[in-house]
Structure formats: structure tokens, C-alpha cells
Amino acid sequence: MTGEVALSVKNLKTFFYTNNRCNKAVNGVSFDIKKGRTLCVVGESGCGKSVTASTIMQLLPSLSRIEEGSITYHAEAGDIRIDQLDRDGKEMRRIRGSEIAMIFQDPMTALNPVYTIGFQIGESLKYHTDLSAKARHAKVVDLLANMGIPEPERRAKEYPHKYSGGMRQRALIAMAMSCNPKILIADEPTTALDVTIQAQIFRLMDELKEQHGTAIMLITHDMGVVAELADEVIVMYMGNIVEAGTVDDILRRPKHPYTRALLDSIPVLGRGRNQDIKSIRGATPDPYQRPKGCQFSPRCDFATETCSAMPDEEYITETHRVSCHHYKDISQHD
Amino acid sequence: MTESRDVILQLRDLKTYFALRQGVFQRVTGFVKAVDGINLDIYRGEVLGLVGESGCGKTTLGKSILQLIRPTAGEITYHGADGTDGAVDMCCLSDAEMVAYRKKLQIVFQDPHSSLNPAFTIFGSLQDPLKKYGVKSKKERRKIIGDLLEAVNLQRDYMDRYPHEFSGGQRQRIGIARALSVEPELIVCDEAVSALDVSIQAQVLQLLMDLKKKRNLTYIFITHDLSVTEYICDRIAVMYLGRIVELAHTEDLYEHRLHPYTQALLSSIPVADLDRKTKRIVLEGDVPSPINPPSGCPFHPRCRFAKDICSTEVPALRKVVTGGKEHHVSCHLVDDTVTAA
Amino acid sequence: MANSALNRKFDRIRALEEAGELKPLTGSRALRKMMNNRLAMVGVVIFLIILLSAIFAPLLTAHSPTKIDLRSMLQSPSGEHWFGTDKTGRDVFARVLYGGRVSILVGLGSALLAALIGVGVGCYTGYKGGILDVIALRVSEIFMSFPQIILVLLLVSIAGQSLANLIVIFVLTGWGGMYRLARARMLSLREEEYVQALRSFGISTPMICYKHILPNALGPIMVNITLTTAMFILAEAGLSFLGLGVPLNIPTWGNILNVAKDLRVLQNNWWMWLPVGMVISLFVLSVNFIGDGLRDSTDPSQQG
Ligand SMILES: Nc1ncnc2c1ncn2[C@@H]1O[C@H](COP(=O)(O)OP(=O)(O)OP(=O)(O)O)[C@@H](O)[C@H]1O
Ligand SMILES: Nc1ncnc2c1ncn2[C@@H]1O[C@H](COP(=O)(O)OP(=O)(O)OP(=O)(O)O)[C@@H](O)[C@H]1O
Ligand SMILES: [Mg+2]
Ligand SMILES: [Mg+2]
Prior knowledge:
The structure holds three protein chains of three kinds.
Chain A: E1 5-16, E2 23-34, E3 38-42, H1 49-56, E4 64-75, E5 78-81, H2 90-98, E6 100-103, H3 117-128, H4 133-146, H5 152-155, H6 165-177, E7 183-187, H7 195-212, E8 215-219, H8 223-229, E9 232-237, E10 240-246, H9 247-252, H10 257-264, E11 314-315, E12 321-322, H11 327-333
Helix pairs in contact in A: 3-4, 3-6, 4-6
Chain B: E1 7-22, E2 27-43, E3 47-51, H1 58-65, E4 73-79, E5 87-89, H2 95-102, E6 105-108, H3 122-132, H4 138-151, H5 168-180, E7 186-190, H6 198-215, E8 218-222, H7 226-232, E9 235-240, E10 243-249, H8 250-255, H9 260-268, E11 318-322, E12 325-329, H10 334-340
Parallel strand pairs in B: 3-8, 3-9, 6-7, 7-8
Antiparallel strand pairs in B: 1-2, 1-4, 4-5, 9-10, 10-12, 11-12
Chain C: H1 4-18, H2 29-36, H3 38-55, H4 57-60, H5 92-128, H6 130-145, H7 148-159, H8 163-189, H9 193-200, H10 205-241, H11 253-258, H12 263-268, H13 274-298
Bound molecules: adenosine-5'-triphosphate (2 copies) and magnesium ion (2 copies).
The site of one magnesium ion (MG) has 3 residues of chain A, from α1.
């Protein structure tokens, strides 16, 4: 059913403990991923987007830990608490790949150069299904063809170096889709690709969503991508969700000063040379010297003393939530 | 070219090929035609955008202009201000003779992490060019570098810090300061803002525009982000496989997209505006290899309008007039596509 | 649970962090990692003890390493002669100390010389590329494919045994490795954008490759120098043991071991070969520990 919640994350905190310091990379985020919808996660580099994704997949490095919160996967057979599963346990390995699949940012390193593409996609089928070798091969060719790779029969027998960047990314999506996962997590799948190739990948993701009802979580830092693909958006800053809502909420009625500043700082195609671009002052803080309270306050034009306490999340409408002390005053400005 | 404006650089039939070598004796087995016959005039004080897909030769063209890569054939003529320095074809100059022109042309790079030497302080990195161009005393060099840092909105005393102490945006500004240190006339910005976070991108873009006004600079702005080009550039050249396929004034290009490739490129860009959603023209296939470019028009295997002539004849970059302005395009079917678009 | 120790550590760090007690890390990350590497620090201590006792040998022993004393031949270790005496009554302890001077000089000296040549050539040709690079590569291959032992025999029979000859041979056979390392680093570093920027200013080639790029390649080169030093010390011992190295009248670790060729010595006079053998092993081991520590600390891909 479209719109049904496939996975819910509640007050998730993931901290890193490298170099004998504690880095609060993800510091209390809550959101739902829904079937047949695309959830876009935006925010600048280092705000914890990838860490959120790898926490859901239980792919965190060893010097890190889930501190608090829950990740619940709503499977057909009942709910599964992913955060309580063993990282490398059998159950988690089954979920990874067959229920939740992930595509990584860099298509160049995510494929093993010494095996053919067909073999690599077949491996995951072998592990998660009980198809015969012949049926697997047929399925691989089928998947590649669905991804728009020409001559899939021949291409399946080729090694990754013969594929261009866009084709590798498509092969990775084919691999991720091989077991019909319910949830697809894509971590900046097109950042390394050209816009014309990006358009091909986006068309593909739209098809997945519409034809298979896959729930998609798409990580990006490009507001353009959000406008194109998202149904729902969460905006992250320094490990927190500052604002979340539907695309319309975020792009047409942004409330949080950070979201507004972000939207004001990008040139938008078609608005010509006279558009007014305002940069956000200052720089992203050092993750080890996080500001007190609202993380955005040192760069915020509306900051007051109250901002040194962490604001609570408030629901403006049923879908639109924001965590800012002053969002009401700010929206009166315009 | 009829417009009587002050030309700073003139590229004529510029070609830069990379030899592919193989075997023990390094025999040449083929060529990568990274830049394959480019004609272009760059006017003093303008911002020329250079856009195109990855691997189409943008960086190679930029580096060829600076003679960081020696072009295989063609001319790059530099015209000094007010005709004082005369016109010189830089491709014919030896490295020693080039030194005088290195001062005029500079480059800013993409990657803020590899553009500064991690083993030196900012002062250490920036002082050698100054030494080379005759600033002998250390005190004077410190003063100049301090002034440059202030010009890019950084503090003077940052010069004694190491690159790892700076954020990406700060490093990029230091890179700009370095390019400015010899007071160039033209700066090639190779993806100068692509690697930066969106919130930082605006800072650097604004800085570049400010500096242009203050110092009367000319920019060649290489990027694949067409939203940025629209904002900053006066003219835009669209490249495909080592050639320019379309060249026009910015507003013109966005309004009258003549070349089918430009149409596809512009329609593929995700626009951060819900009211401006356009229909994507999705190109099939990938960028062909510049080692064996397709015969005829390099774009024809991916073009939805391709006719027989496209696979046999290379279209020339011809002039058409749109909206009362010059517009160059290299396509056999321009008239057809204009109506189709 | 196996993770409980890790969890406790995490809890401690988190508590400190929240109390704001952890300071930003200052100083060199590489140095900090080196200091935290126990094995490397043990290596440094052993290395320094052996090196300093060799340098300050006259202060540590009153005996001369070369003075023959026929009245005290083949004495076992005692308060007077810590490591005993050899067949001609020379004090073995003094010989080990003074021998260390020559051995370390040969090892470290040849390694440094080899590095000077190898890095000097590798930096320039690696950066420049082209025909110069191809020539240098082929030349280094020729040198590296030449068997060391035959080169030694050749030189000894032509020029006779001497310290200088040994060093020359080590440098000839050793520079190739350094050259290849430096060249490989250069090939990747020369593509960095700061190098392109320097070129765009018209800065001269030697200035770019020696002043600006070389400092960034020093980490792996240092590692290689330490490991090569260890290798040369072993090689010196081996060659001297065979009688092909340093002339026998100069005490070196290898020459001291030379006496153990005699089966009777091997069976009856353990003090003539065991202590020196152990010193060699300890020294080489410590140098290897240091080298490994350096490698780990300068490798940015290793998290700590
Ligand atoms: N493997 C790791 N070890 C230690 N710290 C990490 C690790 N991965 C991420 N971090 C830290 O966690 C924080 C969030 O990083 P994350 O990778 O999630 O950012 P991001 O939003 O994905 O950024 P980007 O857009 O650059 O991919 C950062 O402060 C980062 O330094
Ligand atoms: N040093 C080189 N040797 C051989 N081929 C090269 C070299 N540099 C670039 N090329 C090739 O020349 C072509 C053009 O490369 P170039 O770097 O100019 O592309 P670009 O348009 O700048 O792409 P991008 O957007 O990815 O930076 C590519 O096919 C590339 O592989
Ligand atoms: Mg990430
Ligand atoms: Mg480039």
C-alpha cells in the first residue's frame, strides 16, 4: 500500500569514538520511510546523512555505537527492531539485500574488479533466493535489461572496467534491486555522474517507486534533486533534523532559518542573472566543538539567548515539523 | 567575428591530443582527441562559461590555454591591454619566453583538498611565485600575502597556518588569493565551486564577482553546473567531445536552445523550483570515447533528430542570429530543431 | 559480552566529552600515533641504547678492541672481561662496542647514500616523465637484477677488501629500491593541484620537485631508509662472516662473528659469538619495529 510506513526511526543517536573523542554524528533523529514514496535527506557535508543510512543498514565501523533510539522495520511477518539485531548476525544479513538494499555514492569502488558484473549480481541472488543457476542467469539478464543496459546478455559477461560510470551505477542498482527489496537507500547515487546520466538514473528510480512500490530514501545535497524526486524531505544540520515535511512544505513554505538560508544561497536555473543570492555566513562548526543548544545559532540571523537551549520539534501541520524557537516570528517577516 | 570588442585571447583551430602508448618501446597506438579544433574569442572583462559532460575536454582546454599542457596544433594569441604588448601566439613560445605571460593568466582549481601543499604554511606556499616575479624582501612578501588574504575576506594572520586547519571554502579562497598574487588579467576557474557545499558555494561565487569588478578580471568559468553558469556568465560555450557545439550569450542560450545536445543537457538539470518543472529529455547511451569519436557530428549516435548527413559530415560552427544577438551553433539541422523544440 | 570493555571505554569518553574536558587534538597526528605504538617505542629505546653505547664506547670500557693480550686468551666472561676474550686475548665486549660503530656506519651510511641517489634521481625523473624516466627506470632495473654477491666478489678481487668498497657495493645495489619508491610517490603527487598551480606560475622544475613535492613523500622514504639500514647491517655481517666484507683487522659485528666459522669455537666458546649475534638481532629487530611504527603512523588510511 502506498503511503504505509515501511521503516520508522525514533530518536536515533549514533556517536563515533575515534581518536579518543566522542563525535555526536547523529544526535536524535526521527523519521518514517513510506512505501511507494521517496524521502530525500538533504544537508551539507558532514551533517550525518551517510551515518544515518549506515546505521539503518547496521554497517557502522567498529568504533561507533547506537546510543539511543529505535529503528523498526515493519515487515509483513511483523515488526523487527533493527537496532537490537547483531551487526553481523544471520537475521541482519538476511534483511540486508533482500529487504533493505543500499546504493553507494561511488560506483567506481563498489564493484569488485575481478568478477564479471553478471557474477556479482548473481551472488546476491544465490544467497537470498533458491533459484537454479540457469534461472539466476536469466534473472540477471532481465534485471540489466530493465536498467536500460543495451545487449544485457553480452554485458553480463563483462568486467566492471568496461562499464562507464553511469552503467556501473545502473549495475549497482540492478544488484540492489535483484531481490525486490522493500526499501532502497541511495546515498548520493548520482553525485559522481553527469547530469544527462543522472537523468537516466532518476527515471529508473521513479519507475521502481511506481511499479514496485519500493520505499526510497535518497540522500543528496542538491535542492534540485529534491524538487525533482522527493515526496517528503528532511533537512539535517549537524546531526539533527531541523525541518521535515512534504516537498511543498519545505520548498514553498520553509520555516527554519537554515532551510531558508540554504534555499536563498543557490542559483536556480531559469531565474536569470539578476537573482539575489545570499550566502550563509560563517562555516560549519567543528564536530568536536559543537555549539550549545540549537546547532545553527552561531550562523543564524535570528538567534537570541533562548537559542542556547535545544529547541523542541514542533508540528506546524500534520506533515510539517520544525525545530526552532523563533520560527513563528521569522515567518511574520515576509 | 564582427563584434568590435577588446579581445584578450584568440583561439584558432586549437587541438590537444594525448598519445596513447603501449609496450616496452612506448609505441604510440592512438590518440585521445581531448580538444579537437576549437575556435573562440575571449573578450576582456567577460565571464565565459565552459560547460559539458565529464571527459569532454573542458579541463584540457583550460590547461592548454595556460600552456600547462602544450597544444598539439593551433594558435592561442594573447592581446595585451590597449595593444601595448602586441599580439603573441603563446603556442610558439619556449618555457622561458612563456614566463612573461604566466603573470597574465592564472588558474583556480576544483579540489580544495589537493590545491594547497599540506607540507607548507600558506605563506610558504604563496611566497615562491612572488619571489619569482621579483619581490625580494621577505617583509614585503608578507605584506602582499596579507593584503591578498584580506582581499578574499580572510584574516592576515592565517598565512602562518597549515592547509589542514582550514575548511573547504576557506581553502578555495586561499587558492583564489594565490591566483591573484601575480595580478593576472585572466583567470581560468576550473570547477572552482563544484566541490564546495551549497552554503559555501555562494560565498565563493560572490567573492569572484566582487574581485572581477574591482580588478577588471576576465574569467573562463569551467563547470558542469548550469545553474551556476546562468548566474555568473556573460556567454556560454557548450562542449561535446572536444568541440564547441553551441556558443551564445547566456540569456540567449537559455531561451533559444538550438543544438539538440544543449536541449537535453538543460532539460536534465534538476531545478530547485517546483513551479519550473520541465520535461526531462533523457539521452540514451553514454558519452562516446574521445579515442574513436563517431564520424560526422560527434553527437549523432545519441541525437533524436539525427539524419543521414549527420553521420557523414562534420558540421561547422556557424553563426545564426537569435533575439538580435550572435549565436553560434554546429548542427546540420538547426532549422529543424528550432521548430521541434 | 565481548563488547562490554569497548562499551565502558565509550561511556568514559562520552562522559568526558560532555563535561567538556577533552581538548582538541594538537600537534602532529603522526607523532602521536608513533608515541602510542608500544612496539615502536621499545624499538626506539633499544636502538638508542645500542647506538649510544657504540658512540660512547671509550666511556663504557677501558679495553681496546684491537690490543692483543696473549696472557688472557679465550677467557670466559668475568667481571674484568664482560663478554670474555677471544683467541688472541682481545676483549669481546670492547670489540662489540667498537664494532657497532663500523657496522652501524656501514648500514646507516649506505642506506642514506642510497636514499640520496635514489630519491634524487627518482624525484626528478618521476616528476618530469618522458624519455628520462624510461632511461632511469631501465638503469635501475639493471642494477637491481645484478646479484650482490657476484658484485662483491668482483670488486674485492679488483680493488681489494675495504670499508669503502663495501659501502659502494651497498649503495649500487640499494639505490634502485629507493628510486622506485620515490618515483612511484612522484607519479601520484605530481598530479596534485598545487603542483599544477606552481607550474602555472612558471616555477622551475627542480624547485617544484625538490622543495615543494619531496616533503610530502618523506614518510614512506623514511620507512624505507630504516628498513634498508637493517638489511645492510645483516648483509655486512653475512659478507664479513664469509670473509668478503670489511678487512678482518677492523672490528665489525660481522668480523667478530667470523670466528664462529671454527667448529671448536662454536662448541666450546659460546661467548665469542652469542652476545654479538644477539646484539645484531636486537638492533635489526629494533630498527624494523621503528620502521613499522613509522609506516603505520604516516599512513593516513589507518584510523586511530
Ligand atoms: N567512519 C567514520 N569514522 C569516524 N567518524 C566518522 C566516520 N564516518 C563519519 N564520521 C563523522 O560523522 C559525521 C557525519 O558524517 P557523514 O558521513 O554522515 O556526513 P554526510 O552528511 O554523509 O556528508 P557528505 O555529504 O560529505 O557525505 C562527520 O562529523 C564525520 O566526521
Ligand atoms: N594526461 C592525460 N593523458 C591521457 N588522456 C587524458 C589526459 N588528461 C585527460 N585525458 C583525457 O582527455 C579527455 C578530456 O579530459 P578532461 O579532463 O579535459 O575532461 P573534462 O571535461 O575536464 O572532464 P571533467 O568534467 O570530468 O573534469 C578525457 O577522455 C580524458 O580521459
Ligand atoms: Mg555522505
Ligand atoms: Mg575537468
